[in-house]
Write a structure and sequence with these properties.
278 residues, 11 helices
Length: 278
């Protein structure tokens, strides 16, 4: 915190309010702030785990029975749609929500990031010729915030990291954030942009009413690379489950399997979210 304040004062003196805003955005987007301010809280992960488990006992329609931080290994090609987590408030671990959010989805194959990654890694085009790059370049030229920073040189470095990531995943397979933190903690924590600690920053998915996996919020670039590089599996964490899917979990867990017909049992028996209870 002292580092953030002192840095802000220095930049404010040099560049005023705009400079201070840039410094704060840069500090937060690096993952550094989240780790320093939240990641070191004692037992924060365990407290959240107990909170969700207690929530399920009291309000089973709003909280899951599953370990909220468990990792599922899935074929990335099976994730074909994404859902708007901000609009439908789906970003919190362990939540259960009803409604039609799982039916209002976007097709990943049509996503600008996915299309740009395909152009780069399958057609060997320059990043500068992709829509993803030009969109971010336009924001920088209009002095708007981007995760790459506020300069074209920073933007080039940002996209160069995707080249390195693709090569690494293609050659070594997908590694969990915990594994990466163990081997290179400083780099992993700085690049951890979407969660308090890397162990909570795997690719995020939500599970719809029929058990369909929808990309959700975290790890978008990693998922796209996994799909394009044709890796066998990637690690994901479930953020929100649909109430109807949670009902399937509850039915199986509490030995009420007779209420599921044979077709449902056959359909769900290999679902990765049910491995812990089947």
């Amino acid at each position: 915190m002292k580092e953030l304040i002192s840095r802000g004062i220095r930049i404010f003196r040099a560049g005023g309010v705009i400079g201070l805003k840039k410094a704060i955005n840069s500090f937060v987007d690096s993952g550094e702030a989240r780790y320093k301010l939240l990641g070191l809280l004692p037992y924060s992960r365990n407290v959240l785990y107990l909170y969700i488990q207690l929530g399920h006992l009291i309000l089973p329609n709003r909280y899951t029975d599953a370990d909220p931080f468990k990792i599922l290994w899935i074929d990335p090609s099976k994730v074909t749609e994404s859902t708007d987590t901000a609009r439908y408030q789906l970003r919190r671990f362990g939540k259960v929500r009803g409604g039609n959010w799982d039916q209002r989805t976007d097709t990943i194959a049509e996503d600008v990031v996915y299309q740009s990654f395909k152009e780069r890694f399958q057609k060997n085009r320059s990043w500068k010729d992709t829509e993803y790059y030009t969109n971010m370049q336009s924001r920088i030229e209009n002095n708007k915030h981007t995760r790459a920073g506020y300069s074209i040189s920073a933007l080039d470095d940002y996209f160069a990291e995707f080249d390195d990531l693709y090569t690494k995943i293609e050659s070594d397979g997908y590694q969990t954030q915990q594994s990466l933190e163990a081997s290179d903690p400083e780099t992993t924590r700085v690049k951890n942009m979407d969660a308090p600690v890397p162990q909570m920053n795997e690719i995020g998915v939500c599970i719809g009413r029929n058990g369909n996996l929808l990309h959700s919020y975290r790890g978008k670039h990693r998922l796209m690379i996994g799909k394009i590089a044709n890796v066998d599996s990637v690690a994901v964490q479930v953020l929100t489950r649909h109430q109807e899917w949670q009902s399937v979990r509850d039915t199986i867990r509490y030995s009420k399997s007779s209420t599921l017909d044979d077709e449902a049992v056959e359909r769900y028996q290999h679902h990765p979210d049910l491995n812990d209870i089947l």
